[in-house]
Amino acid sequence: MTRGTSSARRYAEAGFEIALRDDAVAGWQAAFDGAVQALRDERIARVAHSPTVSPAARRDLIASAVGRPFPRPFANLLLVLLQRRRIQLLPQVAAEFQRLVDRRAGITRAVVTSAVPLEQADLRAVRTRLEEMTGDRVELTTLVDDGLIGGLRVRIGDRLIDGSVRGRLERLRGQLIAGAL
């Protein structure tokens, strides 16, 4: 785990505990969405990273770009990230926060990559199998990558299940090279 991921996870866990305590998880999710979207604007991002502007002024700029004030504890988290010059972690913190929300709701997100678009029956079969494996409700995101040649590649969190033809060929290549040495 990289340092940025570890830091993002710690910030998200702290924020999630506060959001649960205050029964404000939905408000925090909306605040994360708005703040991350605001930071995608190049002008706002430039000011948010500027050391010549006070952290409070940078926080207020982000809030004004969103168009509504943030919940006070979320604004404090944003201020901490700005003061510590870690605002670039905000998208990762938001993703980790969403992961915690999903975990609490018994939802696992998976990304299924295939060489061709999958039929609905195939998606249902993949979802059913993943739900059996995880014990959670699975929400799928599908991608198409014709470089896979055939088969599927499934990413669940930090696990990768590679059942693609390309993956099999690469494993076979590795075995052949290892055997030749």
Descriptive tags:
181 residues, alpha+beta, Peroxidase, domain 1, 2 domains, 4-stranded mixed beta sheet, 8 helices, 62% helix, elongated
Describe the overall structure.
This protein has 181 residues and is an alpha+beta fold. The protein folds into two domains: 3-102, Orthogonal Bundle (Peroxidase, domain 1), CATH 1.10.520.20; 106-180, no CATH class. It has helices at residues 3-21, 25-39, 42-48, 55-66, 72-83, 90-105, 120-134, 165-180, and strands spanning 107-114, 137-144, 152-156, 159-162. Strands 2-1-3-4 form a four-stranded mixed beta sheet. α1 (3-21) packs across α6. The protein is elongated and about 60 Å long.
Principal-axes geometry comes out as elongated
CATH architectural type of the largest domain: Orthogonal Bundle
Distance between the termini: 32 Å
What structural class is derived from the secondary structure elements? alpha+beta
CATH class of the largest domain: Mainly Alpha
CATH fold-type name of the largest domain? Peroxidase, domain 1
The succession of helices and strands, N to C, reads HHHHHHEHEEEH
Query: What's the total count of β strands?
Result: 4
Overall domain count: 2
Rg calc = 21 Å
- As a percent range, the share of strand residues is 5-15%
The residue fraction in helices comes out at 55-70%
Spell out the CATH superfamily of the largest domain.
Answer: N-terminal domain of the delta subunit of the F1F0-ATP synthase
Largest sheet: 4 strands, mixed
Query: Mean of the pLDDT scores?
Result: 90
The oligomeric state is single chain
Sequence stretches where pLDDT stays below 50 over 5 or more residues: none
* Strand order in the largest sheet: 2-1-3-4
Number of separate helices: 8
